[in-house]
Amino acid sequence: MSELRAATLGYAVLAATAIAYLVVYTTSLGHLPTPFDYLSLLNTSLPLVFVAIGQSLVVLTGGIDLSVGGMVGLGVAIVAAGSTSGAAVTAGWMLAAVGAGAACGAVNGLIVAKGRIAPILTTLATLSVYSGLALKVLPVPGGEISPAVRSVLTDPDVPTGLIWLGVAVAGWLVLRRTRFGMRVYAVGSDETAARAVGVPTVWVKVGVYALSGVCSGLAAVFYVSTTTSGDPNAGDSFILTSIAAVVVGGIAFAGGRGSALGAVAGAFALTLVIDVLFFAGIDPLYQSLFQGLFLVVAVLLGSLVRWRRA
Amino acid sequence: MTTLDTAKRVLAGPHRRVLYAFAAAATILVAGAVIHPGFGSWTSLRTMLVLASFIGFVGAGQMLVVLVGGIDLSMPWVLNGAAIVLTTSSLGQSGRLPLAVALALGVGAAVGLANGLGVAWLGVPAVVMTLGMNGVLQGLSLGLSKGLTCGSCASYAPEPLRRLVVGRLFGVPSELLLWAGVALFVTVLLTLTTFGRRVYAVGNNPRAAFLAGVGVRGVTVVLYMLSGVFAALAGITLVAYGGQPSLGLGDPYLFESIAAVVVGGVSILGGRGHYVGVVAGSVTLVAIVTLLQAERVPEYGRNVIYGLVILAILFTYGRERADD
């Protein structure tokens, strides 16, 4: 299946949401969105984009990662607690946050693959552990990030975020074509068959959970960069939104089908929906009602299209 | 036939995990009584059991859908929504209580019906359907109550309902009798009725169950409805306990419900498990948290230890069979 076909649902949903955004923005403000609007949309979407790519990898093997909330929280805590001094030190702590994510993710993978405990249960338990560690590192919200770091990662005036988005997408496209990428799909399609032909399923799983941790660490870095401070509970909202992005992106929960690019589109669509509701003048209290409906309708449309094709 | 043989037979049988669940609860309770004086007293046990009953109610609903390989992520806001419906429709008046309870349970049943129809008829994955409905309920609860600032939102639960927790019947808090009733209902439903047989059949192999003439879709819809009703019941009893609903009241209960189900020895893959195990699981979870609080463990330590204990329990009896 081509990359485009695999992510069709995600692109279609994103296109529809983008049109809705342009319409409500223009009718409510009387002019088209400015470059500043696009840029702030891009920067606020980036953390979810990263978590969604990690979640995609895990879901492609037929698993699920609920601990992303704890890993993002831990990463945010590490970056925010360590970044009180200069840019070089901050960069070091950012690497530490990504490393912590990789370690946490590898632990998830080992428990799932070696311990044979269902992914949803493993990551539910480790979510509690990692959230606890985040609270230990940063007991109360705080911290500050140096402007130098901000100008490299998510400059509010220059689209540096676009570079990082490009790196993330390119990273996926390369990974998809490596032997590891092939094995991810093989494990997700039929684990027994994959094992029979010699795919080291245990290490593939450890790999995807570790990569999910790396993505959560990167998301934490970009989260602190856009919000300029840290909250140890910042990761909580990413659990459900990353799953929603994966679903809207058209990745099958059974594993083996879909593309992380769909989830990237899904992540942007989910962020756009909030702005659409805002410019449409809908009471923010009703926000989650429309997000919930959006999720269910997107999936229903996806399955309708699949029926027609079948 | 010695007792050892009997013990071996039970341990090898389908009830093994239920026994493990009780062993886990007993271990934590005994450890608590040894570490912390007063932990094992009747007063402390009674408080823990009342707290465990709320997890027991959401656990009952979660277990029913897990038995057919599903999951209900809409519990937090069904619980919260039902709690808000109860106080805003009863306005603290005893005369309006029956109607208010019926309305609150009705909300749960309606959401469950929507979940069930989406999962069984439209083929939406359970995670997506129930996650979406959780959002819908959250939006409706916040929007209609104007963020819990509406005029009637300040009302308290009517007095008769509050006696559910404070009141005693034969020296036992009425709340615990209600939990015993729920336990009896779920156990009888699952083990002594045709419906129960069908639930396990669908959970073990939906295709085989369908070919054997089981109305798989109907069974699924009923289970999701029951799950919604149990989440609403938890909301009602939590209002009885606290007097007033708050926003986010249901948030902890999503993970608690799933944890209680698996610590109670129910297979997350469906088809295996009993409610008595979930009862033990609920008590275990509350006992862990109570013990950590009694020992004045800071919040981060409580989270870490809580997660590690659940992992340890999963390693003991929550592992999947090796397939190679």
TrEMBL record, chain A:
InterPro entries registered for this protein in UniProt: ABC_transp_permease
Membrane topology: Multi-pass membrane protein
Keyword Cell membrane appears in the UniProt entry: yes
GO molecular function terms noted in the UniProt entry: transmembrane transporter activity
CDD domains, sorted: TM_PBP1_transp_AraH_like
A Pfam family recorded for this sequence: BPD_transp_2
Regions that span the bilayer: 7-26, 38-59, 66-87, 93-113, 120-138, 158-175, 202-225, 237-254, 261-282, 288-307
GO cellular component terms, A-Z: plasma membrane
Superkingdom of source: Bacteria
Keyword check for Secreted: no
UniProt subcellular location: Cell membrane
Keywords annotated in UniProt: Cell membrane, Membrane, Transmembrane, Transmembrane helix
PANTHER family: ABC TRANSPORTER PERMEASE PROTEIN YPHD-RELATED-RELATED, RIBOSE IMPORT PERMEASE PROTEIN RBSC
Protein name: Sugar ABC transporter permease
Species name: Dactylosporangium siamense
TrEMBL record, chain B:
Cellular compartments per GO CC: plasma membrane
Top-level taxon of origin: Bacteria
Cell compartments where the protein resides: Cell membrane
Molecular function (Gene Ontology), one example: transmembrane transporter activity
UniProt keyword annotations, A-Z: Cell inner membrane, Cell membrane, Membrane, Transmembrane, Transmembrane helix, Transport
InterPro entries from the UniProt entry: ABC_transp_permease
Designated name of the protein: Autoinducer 2 import system permease protein LsrD
Transmembrane region(s): 18-36, 48-68, 74-92, 99-124, 176-196, 208-241, 253-270, 275-294, 300-318
Membrane-related topology note: Multi-pass membrane protein
